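EI: anyone free to look at a 296-residue chain?
SC: sure, send it
EI:
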Amino acid sequence: MESLRRLTGGASRETWRFEADGNDFVLQRVRPGRPDGLGCEPAVLSSAFAAGVPVPEVVVDGSLSTELELPFMIVRAVEGETIARKILRDEEFAHARTILADQLGTAAAKLHSIDHSHISGLASNDQLTMYRKVLDDLGEPHPVFEIAFRWLESNRPTSGTVALVHGDYRLGNVMVNADGLTAILDWELAHVGDPMEDLAWLCVRAWRFGGAFPVAGMGTYQQLFSAYERASGVQPDPDVVRWWEILGTLKWGIMCIAQANTHLSGVARSHELAAIGRRVCENEYDILTMLREVLV
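SC: here you go
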């Protein structure tokens, strides 16, 4: 092993990069105090890699190992940029910005085609119910969120389609080089659910990072949907995607409240958490804007 160095970032994992036998690898080890370990992430990554989804290849699954004291996995290193601001603005990624929506649609289609029946431990929760409880437990009144909950409950999609879902499919969790998408990262939230959840989360305005277009700030709905249909044979229903986009905006708004509460309660004093709490109103505005569009 050579050139071992610790990488920054990652709230739940220690991340290290190193060389061995002329190849580059990344090791992720669970931080102390994380009883959930790696969950089923190594199995999900391996299945995604086998299906042709652009993900790092798992070379060591240490999720049940005690060799490094805590669960770990080693993957082949992938090169690219993950910082959304750079991807959206730097000249190096000018070409990538023109094709990334198509690539993300194609990758999502491959992901959703995976037979997940052999992957144990995948959650399958009703997210509307789950986030209803989270908001109730936080104990803060937010009338706009209450309106959103009522509309979402009254307009639930009835497709019944379920698939392996990434759960955090967005700019910031993808790696990009000058030619476009090189890897999809951060699979901790993978679960079984409606595949349109992934397409919609990609379009939530918070994950456009100031970009002018709805898909990751740089592509159109039509680009995303057409690429998905070409790769899967399934034509996304814009109304279903919009339902999930509204739910995604609601989810992120509630997450912002929860992160601010972590700071305010003294559990973890952090300027970053406090600043995220100030973004609740952005999500309220986005929800009102989207509901106005669907109700007209």
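EI: The chain has a mean pLDDT of 94.
SC: 👍
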